[in-house]
Design a protein that fits this description.
With 591 residues, the chain is of the alpha+beta class. It contains six helices and 29 strands. The protein is elongated, with a radius of gyration of 33 Å. The N terminus is likely disordered.
């Protein structure tokens, strides 16, 4: 396949709604010739809309108003054709009346030779002008395709014929029915699929690993069983919308051979498709598939089909006796229209030949580089930074003994912060290596990541320029160092919140949000506790005399009384941070 807020980066099926839903912008030039929406459904036979013309005669250079009227509809395509050759090339060009509702298309290399919608808003009246060319045929007829909804549309609704004044009488040609996909025979599966035989008799991909579709309706499952010169494919998963798998030459979307099982009403539609770039999958003919069957039960959907291993001369179908990356995806569907999946598809770790020796292989929703990115950032900003800040702020008297020529607290703080800067730099470059550049689909996450990186690099550089203890500039350094560090931690937490929901590393379930909020509350609570403890100790060193009360610095002998308490707090705090870290790392490792 060809290449955050996405997903998933590299995604299998970047699904939108077709013509109106998949092409809400109306850029439907692929339908210019036959005027048939690429929805994979049969056009309705009896039009309920009318195509009208302002007059029935014209001369070259005339401008004639054409209108499509009727019950509410979402999409349309209007063309002018030679009435004696309605399957021929478009005739003349159009001029828009309402550019908010309609737009010009280029069909057959003729600019402005067709008109379509600009959005999926409901409409009942569309009007445009047709400009008659100098080489216009004797008789012209306007054809309109009108889409009411995804599964309901009419193709080539005709207008009255308009003719040149001296043209011979028009004779109606034999009607040519609009092409429609033939419906193949589809049966119901008598019993659910089973994982029995995976790795011994059939090639399998499944998630969670070792799940069995016979017992778990949420098990996302694919099996391929070879039978001489053909294979039988089985897919199983949740019935909320659609299941799909694709064969790809790489780990990126584009130029792929895909197969979809779409839950429609109380049935399942099984369709081959192909993908070109990061676009809506184009549904193909059923001709290459045989023995199609499906099953819906207890929230689960299963479908199967058979196809030949090689299909010479068939466009968009791959030969199966070659190794490919395998993608498995699920997503929402309604009334037969498929929507973009919200999570990264499962992708095998390496290429596999599904017709070779049977295997039971693993797959992951998160590419290894993105998982490493997430893990390193979690280590940095959930443990090393938090512990380093706590130690520098509250544990100077507790860890005041020298260690390699400096106070122990300073050595611990410096080591943890240098580790943070180093790991942040490493983690920062991993998504760029994976994506091959900047991702425009990741929302604010990469921008916040850039801010975090800049601050993480500036902090040790600023620390290297730290003035001596009694230097007048030391006060300015302290505030700057504290401000930049605090800003980095706040931005890092925001970036982690956003990163958890990106398709490339979409941690499942709402628990992740609560766990991250718990971590923030844990850290803030620890700082408040230590601040209160430090303040209470400072009150014990008040020196009273007859005329005044002098408040001395908090780092005194009196604070030594609280060293045991602080050590206990530090131990519990570190254990808590590590616990939160393990929770998130275990979730990342299971993706």
């Amino acid at each position: 396949m060809a290449a955050p807020g996405r997903t998933a980066g590299a995604v299998l099926l970047l699904l939108r709604i077709s013509l109106v839903a998949a092409y809400p912008s109306g850029r439907v030039t692929e339908s210019c010739g036959d005027m048939v929406p690429r929805h994979g459904h049969t056009p309705r036979p009896d039009p309920v809309h009318n195509v009208t013309v302002a007059r029935t005669t014209f001369t070259p250079g005339d401008r004639i108003e054409v209108a499509v009227l009727g019950p509410e509809f979402k999409g349309f395509l209007i063309e002018a054709r030679d009435a004696e050759d309605p399957s021929g090339a478009p005739v003349g060009s159009f001029t828009l009346i309402d550019s908010q509702a309609s737009q010009l298309l280029t069909c057959g290399d003729k600019q402005g030779s067709a008109v379509s919608h600009t959005n999926a808003h409901r409409k009942t009246d569309i009007r445009v002008y047709w400009d008659a060319p100098t080489s216009a045929p004797n008789h012209v007829q306007f054809l309109a395709t009108v889409v009411e909804k995804y599964k309901s549309y009419w193709v080539k609704i005709p207008s009255p014929v308009i003719s040149q004044p001296k043209a011979p009488p028009f004779s109606t040609p034999a009607a040519t029915p609009a092409p429609s996909p033939a419906s193949p025979a589809v049966s119901r599966l008598p019993k659910p699929f089973s994982a029995s035989g995976c790795g011994s008799r059939k090639f399998c991909v499944r998630s969670p690993s070792a799940c069995d579709p016979a017992a778990e309706r949420t098990c996302v499952f694919l099996s391929v069983t070879r039978d001489d010169q053909s294979v039988t494919v089985e897919m199983s998963g949740p019935s909320k919308g659609y299941l799909s798998f694709a064969l790809s030459h790489d780990r990126w979307m584009g130029d792929d051979d895909a197969y979809l099982c779409i839950h429609e009403d109380q049935t399942v539609s099984i369709r081959p498709a192909h993908l070109t770039g990061r676009s809506h999958p184009a549904l193909d003919s059923w001709d290459t598939l045989e023995g199609m069957a499906w099953r819906l039960e207890d929230g689960g959907m299963q479908c199967s089909f058979r196809r030949n291993i090689t299909l010479p001369g068939v466009k968009n179908r791959f030969d199966l006796n070659t190794s490919y990356y395998i993608f498995l995806a699920t997503g929402a569907a309604k009334d037969g229209q498929i929507y973009r999946h919200s999570q990264q598809p499962l992708i095998t770790y390496e290429k596999h030949d599904v017709t070779g020796d049977p295997q039971d292989v693993g797959a992951s929703q998160a590419p290894p580089l993105l998982r490493a990115h997430g893990a390193l950032m979690l280590v940095c900003w959930m443990t090393t930074v938090s512990v380093g800040v706590i130690v520098a702020r509250f544990f100077k008297p507790v860890l005041s003994r020298p260690l390699f020529g400096e106070a122990a607290w300073f050595q611990v703080h410096r080591a943890l912060m240098l580790i943070t800067s180093l790991l942040t730099c490493i983690a920062f470059v991993l998504p760029f290596i994976y994506r091959g550049g900047w991702s425009s689909r990741a929302g604010y996450h990469p921008y916040l990541g850039c801010v975090v990186l800049i601050l993480a690099v500036l902090q040790p550089l600023l620390a290297a320029l730290r003035p001596p203890l009694h230097d007048p500039r030391r006060h300015l350094f302290n505030w700057t160092h504290w401000g930049m560090g605090t800003a980095a931690r706040i931005v890092a937490v925001a970036a982690m919140f956003l990163g958890m929901d990106l398709p490339g590393l979409a941690l499942p379930g709402p628990w992740k949000t609560y766990a991250m909020l718990g971590f923030v509350a844990w850290h803030v609570g620890a700082e408040i506790l230590l601040e209160v403890h430090t303040y209470r100790l400072s009150r014990k060193v008040e020196i009273l005399d007859d005329t005044r009360i002098q408040i001395m610095q908090p780092f005194t002998m009196a604070e030594a009384e609280g060293h045991g308490f602080k050590k206990a707090v530090l131990a519990v705090y570190v254990c808590g941070n590590v616990t939160f870290l393990i929770i998130f790392l275990s979730a990342v490792s299971r993706l």
